[in-house]
Amino acid sequence: MLTTQAQREAFRTDGAVLVENCLDPAQLARCYEAFKWNVANPGPYHFRSLDGTSLQTHIDNANPVVKDKLDALVATLPFGKVFQELWGSEHVWYFAEEVFAKEGGRSGRGPWHQDTANLPWAGRHWGNAWITFQAIPKKNSLEIVRGSHLGIQYDGASFSNADDPTDPLYGDGTFPRLPHIDKDLAADPNAWDVLSWSVTPGDVVFLHPRSLHGGAAVDAGCPTRHTLVLRFFGDDATFRALPMSNPRYARNGPLFSEEMAKLDEGQAFRSPVFRQIA
Ligand SMILES: O=C(O)CCC(=O)C(=O)O
């Protein structure tokens, strides 16, 4: 086994777990190569709405130009086996990558969000492998509200309003608006049960993407964070249509939308476009 019983239980109940030394130096180097290429060659889903604000972060998603290379890379990494264990799924498919680059020690915390507000995903078997290439102290790391993958599905964060991280993606009443977690925590550090870990290169944080999560700020002591997120799904993954009120996300979400248009509500999340890795 690549994971312990305690790690499997933590993933299922908390929605996130740290696996130390998950990637060896050669695997990590291939991931960093992919990250650097991706940042140097932004794709059509490069997200720029926070550019020029205090939250400026390079965020890009599912770059189609590099899809074949990343599909091949993922097959050389241990994530098929890790997710089989964490989920208890027989099969594992690779969805796509997302990159986050915070540089210059000035980027504030990324808005708290659930990926399932932006993408048409439901079911237990979803997972993000959060791979960071610098040593990151706990206070600058990824933060997750423990157990929130089993709780309320909130509206998304628009990621377009640096002054209000709860600014909604839809705002049409389908989902409740995001709570202002940072404000709540400033008033009472115990208001939310937040999980995070210091990481060293080779460690991977696995999180269920329905968890409320967000990247903490970088600062003078930790000025740079380069993160490659690889996203996966397994047997219990279904298509769940998104609200129609935001044209960019309507029903199918912005990624692989032609493939998503072929799926019915509640249907198993399967498409030949996603490479099976286990
Ligand atoms: O690394 C970050 O800042 C955010 C990560 C994230 O949103 C994700 O892994 O889905």
TrEMBL record:
This is Phytanoyl-CoA dioxygenase. InterPro entries: Phytyl_CoA_dOase-like. It comes from the Bacteria. Pfam families: PhyH (PF05721). It comes from Cupriavidus numazuensis.
